Hints:
The structure holds 2 protein chains of 2 kinds. By secondary structure, chain A is an all-beta fold.
Amino acid sequence: SQTIHQWPATLVQPVGSPLSLECTVEGTSNPNLYWYRQAAGRGLQLLFYSVGIGQISSEVPQNLSASRPQDRQFILSSKKLLLSDSGFYLCAWSATGGVRPLNSPLHFGNGTRLTVT
Amino acid sequence: AQKITQTQPGMFVQEKEAVTLDCTYDTSDPSYGLFWYKQPSSGEMIFLIYQGSYDQQNATEGRYSLNFQKARKSANLVISASQLGDSAMYFCAMREVMNAGGTSYGKLTFGQGTILTVHP
């Protein structure tokens, strides 16, 4: 069965420090990968998605970047964190394209709660 | 304009009763998918149920059913026989086909969520 791992679970970082959040998926090949951010008490906002190695698309211009160095590895980074980067970050995967990509649910990791101080 | 609207910030239900969580959506694409997710206080997102835009019948998964009214663009979640463990945030989401680099993928857009509290 497929599993998704995301770490760390919580992180407290000072303003201006770098960030690296990692997400790996097991049990599937060539997944679509996503990074979402959730502000407190709000819905999820799509930050980045990737349909393959090295292919990253950004939904919202921001202080963050993403990379996909391997098929099942997705990394969220920042060179210098801002206070506004605080939030709950969720990595997700879905089955790749195909005839009906719409019926494939996104499967989420347990999330990283980031606090920038 | 909001693509997914959940108008109920909070809902309360008595244990063993049924509850309906509202969701309306907006799209001009004839092909889309609708999902409901549950987010307990731990933060994980749990997939509950899916409804395709071309599906003729309402989706059901155990105690969860989706009241799909395509003309009204609504996809309400019905939870029957509520349990204390159902207390959580519930998100409605819509998936539309996007194309990136020749490969299709489904972008999932979420509503703002409804906090459900089940009373004993």
